[in-house]
Backbone:
């Protein structure tokens, strides 16, 4: 075991604090030998990161994190889809279909954030609080280099001193006033990645991950049944994750081996308060799956 690999990190192209150069410099300083950048619904940083990794002699794997919808009888009796995250690895970043779908996501995200601003303003008006102005909204959008989302609106609420921190922004406004993301099913997301030559990995199924199986159930026996129902769509599992317990990690590794799935791992590094790069022990054998 060693801290040589980190296959789950986010840059300023989505909701990370670090640009590609900062990510690669940190990776080199920490002695990482292989990394991947997995921005949300976004591959804009891949080319720059790959070039920097090549100069620093770090192995780089193309990555992305997609939000997908999945139906299972263990969540609301299958009557409502549940949002999961999947990671795509090793795909052709120049695949035109892939680019088109991600562009559609980007355009929808912009419409989504504008709807949320309107909803937040309606509540602020009721409470006689200062509204988010059109200029502030446009500045937020223009400053966002990648996929815009709720964290950017949360930061604006903090900057305006309407809330004291991110947690309060979400708890008071952005959970209740959320606007659904564009729906891509697990099957569609899987086909998108695979048709671009990539591998599909179930992201952070255990505790700690956003939109993970643990949000449905922490019972690993039930999780096993759910993951088994996904085997037509996934090629691997993110077994090593920042907040997975030892029991969860071992369970996912054993399940992956039993079902001939690839095993990946990463810290979900975002920088700032979520400074995690290289701080997770991942078995060196994970690197051999990407040679």
Residues:
């Amino acid at each position: 075991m060693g801290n040589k690999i980190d296959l789950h990190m986010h840059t300023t192209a989505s909701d990370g604090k670090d640009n590609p150069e900062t990510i690669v410099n940190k990776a080199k300083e920490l002695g990482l030998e292989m990394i991947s950048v997995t921005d949300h619904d976004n591959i804009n940083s891949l080319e720059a990161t790959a070039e920097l990794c090549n100069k620093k002699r770090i192995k780089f794997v193309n990555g992305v994190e997609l939000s997908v919808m999945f139906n299972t009888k263990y969540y609301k009796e299958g009557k409502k889809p549940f949002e999961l995250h999947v990671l795509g690895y090793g795909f052709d970043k120049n695949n035109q279909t892939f680019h088109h779908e991600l562009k559609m996501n980007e355009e929808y995200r912009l419409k989504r954030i504008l709807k949320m601003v309107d909803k937040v303003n309606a509540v602020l008006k009721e409470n006689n609080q200062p509204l988010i102005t059109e200029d502030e909204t446009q500045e937020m959008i223009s400053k966002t280099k990648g996929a815009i989302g709720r964290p950017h609106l949360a930061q604006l609420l903090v900057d305006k001193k309407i809330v004291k921190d991110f947690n309060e922004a979400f708890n008071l406004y952005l959970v209740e006033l959320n606007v659904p993301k564009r729906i891509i099913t697990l099957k569609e997301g899987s086909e998108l990645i695979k048709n671009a030559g990539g591998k599909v990995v179930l992201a952070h199924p255990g505790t700690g991950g956003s939109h993970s199986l643990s949000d449905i159930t922490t019972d690993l026996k039930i999780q096993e049944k759910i993951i088994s129902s996904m085997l037509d769509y996934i090629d691997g599992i993110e077994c090593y994750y920042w907040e997975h317990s030892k029991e969860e990690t071992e369970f996912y590794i054993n399940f992956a081996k039993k079902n001939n799935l690839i095993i990946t791992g990463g810290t979900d590094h975002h920088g700032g308060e979520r400074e995690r790069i290289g701080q997770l022990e991942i078995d060196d054998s994970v690197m051999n799956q990407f040679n």
In short: Strands lie at 5-6, 34-37, 59-70, 82-89, 199-202, 236-241, 262-266. The radius of gyration is 19 Å.
